[in-house]
């Protein structure tokens, strides 16, 4: 397949490399910033462009992988293409595309991507949706080449999944950062809690999290909870988070 | 070393098995519940007892691994022993022991233990403290046999570490549980986000979490934040947590 990639952020970068591995022919990478476009394009032997008028009109697939609020205007510039146009967003409705182009779809890889961290697509769930059977077949085929986990999900379910992903990924990562803040302020290194973080995630690979909750809140250990809250007096924001999450854990006891 | 283990919970269970692997001689396991004592004792060829008066008086090491508020009364029953008495708590001061026994210490493995999940002690940081050089040497030696990561920490630092561990382990696990709640209410399975959880933890093994934060809050993507909050209207507790943690992530942008 001849593919045009519109975007050069974290998702676009990882997607581009995974498509390349599968032997797909990514011909162009677009970014409003030409340097960004060329940098990613260079890594996958494509052309980097920063002008939407230069987009190849006869590609099979256009992948829009940009911030949610930029998807619509890019889709508008593709209204004349005959190929399939997809976005990679968890929250954005497919209609934002199908109102602009004839063949529309969604190709949402459920993963957290950071530029310098390699990930194997094989285990990444890819959620697909399309506005027609042929389009869906194209996406299903492409997704199945890249991943062992392909899910056909409508926009409603995809949004739910994205919301759950914020709880399961973005928030835990922020809590790791707060833990690091506490450690650093007291001359301790993040390295000391890395094994704990790894095991916490590993435990829920074969268990449901509600069955393996540990810590003072689930033990209703009021002494420790009070001690911890008092240790956070100088960090009211963290104290509030500690209180909110501990209360939520205690609710599961009822 | 001849060791008596007082406790039969998650920490005690994993510790007992790890001590056995290292060839240490755990002679007794105490629990107020005789069945619990015998169950764990049976697994490591020790005697199970439920009467503190039956505790062997000439062991080298007594490990008190029970709920924090039960440590003191058990320590009191050991006031006549000549061996080293340690607890395994992150929050409890060493003084609670040294006021009762001559040789006191702390042996705190920084990990989350669940009964049915095997863990290798090799990578678990063990934090030690003692009320004398000889006691410290004994604990250092034992810890180094079990783990590659031995930290000599005073009670103040250990408490900080325990607090950080709540943020890095107990709270993330609860957030996994909330994600599962959202998924289940919408007919989706937890399995779909397991790869995301694994990668989120894996990313911070070689990065600092504040450098790899992703998601709508760090992008200041107000549309998605508003959509997500409105999706949680029927779950005010989760809505509050979403708001609190998103605000905290946004604070890091300043």
UniProtKB/TrEMBL annotation, chains A, B:
Which InterPro entries does the UniProt record give? 6-PGluconate_DH-like_C_sf, DUF2520, NAD(P)-bd_dom_sf, P5C_Rdtase_cat_N, TM1727-like_C_sf
* Domain named Pyrroline-5-carboxylate reductase catalytic N-terminal: residues: 2-79
By its UniProt entry, which Pfam families does this protein fall under? DUF2520 (PF10728), F420_oxidored (PF03807)
Source taxon at top rank: Bacteria
Q: Where is the DUF2520 domain?
A: 124-248
> Which PANTHER family does this chain map to?
CONSERVED HYPOTHETICAL ALANINE AND LEUCINE RICH PROTEIN
* Name under which the protein is recorded: Predicted oxidoreductase, contains short-chain dehydrogenase (SDR) and DUF2520 domains
């Amino acid at each position: 397949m001849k593919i045009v990639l519109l975007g050069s952020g974290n998702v676009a970068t990882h997607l581009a490399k995974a498509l390349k591995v599968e032997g797909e022919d990514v011909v162009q990478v677009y970014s409003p910033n030409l340097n960004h476009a060329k940098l990613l394009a260079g890594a996958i032997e494509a052309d980097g462009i920063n002008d939407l008028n230069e987009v190849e009109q006869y590609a099979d697939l256009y992948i829009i992988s940009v911030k949610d609020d930029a998807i619509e205007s890019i889709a508008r510039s593709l209204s004349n293409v005959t190929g399939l146009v997809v976005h990679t967003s968890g929250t954005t409705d497919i209609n934002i595309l199908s109102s602009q182009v004839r063949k529309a779809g969604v190709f949402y890889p459920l993963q957290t991507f950071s530029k310098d961290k390699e990930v194997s697509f094989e285990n990444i769930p890819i959620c697909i949706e399309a506005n027609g059977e042929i389009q869906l077949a194209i996406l299903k085929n492409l997704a199945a080449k890249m991943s062992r986990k392909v899910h056909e999900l409508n926009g409603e379910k995809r949004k739910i999944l994205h919301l759950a992903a914020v709880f399961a990924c973005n928030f835990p990562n922020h809590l790791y950062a707060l833990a690091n803040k506490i450690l650093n302020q007291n001359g301790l290194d993040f390295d000391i809690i890395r094994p704990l973080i790894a095991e916490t995630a590993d435990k829920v690979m074969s268990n449901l999290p509600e069955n393996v909750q540990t810590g003072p809140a689930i033990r209703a250990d009021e002494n420790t909870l009070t001690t911890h809250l008092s240790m956070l007096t100088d960090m009211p924001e963290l104290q509030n988070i500690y209180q909110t999450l501990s209360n939520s854990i205690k609710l599961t006891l009822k």
